[in-house]
Amino acid sequence: MLPPRILRRLILAPLVIVVTVFVLITLPLWVAVTFAASLRLKPPQRRGLRFAWFGMAWLTLESAVLVSCLVLWVAGAFGGRDRQQERHYALIRWFLSKVYGVAVRIFRLTVDVEEPPLTQEEMDARLTRPVIVLARHAGPGDSFLLIYHLLDRYARRPRIVMKAALQFDPSLDVVINRLPNAFVPRRTAESGIIDEIRRLSATMDEDDALVIFPEGGNFTPRRRRLAIRRLEEKGLEEEATRARAMDHLLPPRPGGAIAAIESCPSADVVFVAHTGLDDLITIGDVWRKLPLEAHITAKWWRVPAAAIPPEREERIRWLYDQWELIDDWISAQREAAAEERKADRAG
Fold it and tell me: 151-190 burial, b for 16+ CB within 10 Å, e for fewer?
């Protein structure tokens, strides 16, 4: 159960800073322990050292964000609401840029983003209309990377509906709750989640981007089977048949996406596909399988508001159409990667 906000502020937030100071003081011990543990692996690897380095960097950045939030809270008495929001978005941008930089150095992370060519008219529209971002949900940190690119590359102010349990992370808890976002408890009905999506979507302007993951969670074969079974039990045979034809995705849940479009009809819709770390779902997966070099490939395309089908049933079929495009793209990317590995071994 999530503790009340006052306890999270008085206990969890200071605890992160205390732990960070303790880890910094005892850093030589942690390095020695992780180095010894790495030697026991066969073959010996520096995996433990890399994780210890990343963990130390994360704790340090978390503490810096918490201290900054305290300063911004004090400064809030001297600035308007809009100015305070901009300061917090700038803080998120700084934090994610540092995390991204650390991941590049430690895990040799590279991200290639395939973007569509835009006409001048489309460029102008991109700057004058809000967007609803519909992305697949797979792999570690995909939402962090997506939010970072929205903030850094596209100068957008992202809004997102997240699981309430993420508030156990003190810096995320403090910053996100000061911005137009929503945390929903685990057992919240779908109607409650849709209500939050409507609330966030209805108040967007040209600088905002509402981020939705229509699958509702990371892909696993078991979740895919259960999702298809639910569609069959509801009598949605067409959707179930199309879901069975997709190998890499869960079937999209259309309720949230359609609610966002209805609440902000002027918004364009952006679809985001990505692959590269799909098999790393749990902490154990990350520990066992994280490669020496991490590479993520992403692709996005934009559908103007005027091109979105007007009727609900048409929108559901349209959403499945886009999801099939993402599934086909992932298949092509995996086949290309397999051919490249095969060529490298042959060479």
Answer: beebebbbbbbbeeeebeebbbbbbbebebbbbbeeebee
Per residue in 2-19, pLDDT (tens digit) is 889 999 999 999 999 999
**14 to 20, 39, 225, 232: CA distances (angstroms):** 10, 35, 43, 49
Q: Which residues pair with 303 in a beta bridge?
A: 269
Strand partners of residue 157: 208
Write down the pTM of the prediction: 0.89
| Three-class DSSP category at 114 | strand
User: So where are the chain's domains?
Assistant: 5-346
CA distances from 293 to 106, 148, 276, 277, 337 (A): 9, 20, 11, 11, 14
Q: What is the pLDDT of residues 303-336, one digit of tens each?
A: 999 999 999 999 999 999 999 999 999 999 988 8
Q: Which residues have CB under 8 Å from 135's CB, separation 6+? A: 142, 143, 146, 211, 212, 213, 271, 272, 273, 274
Tokens at 47, concatenated: 């995996």
Structure tokens at 75: 């400064």
- For 29, which DSSP code? H
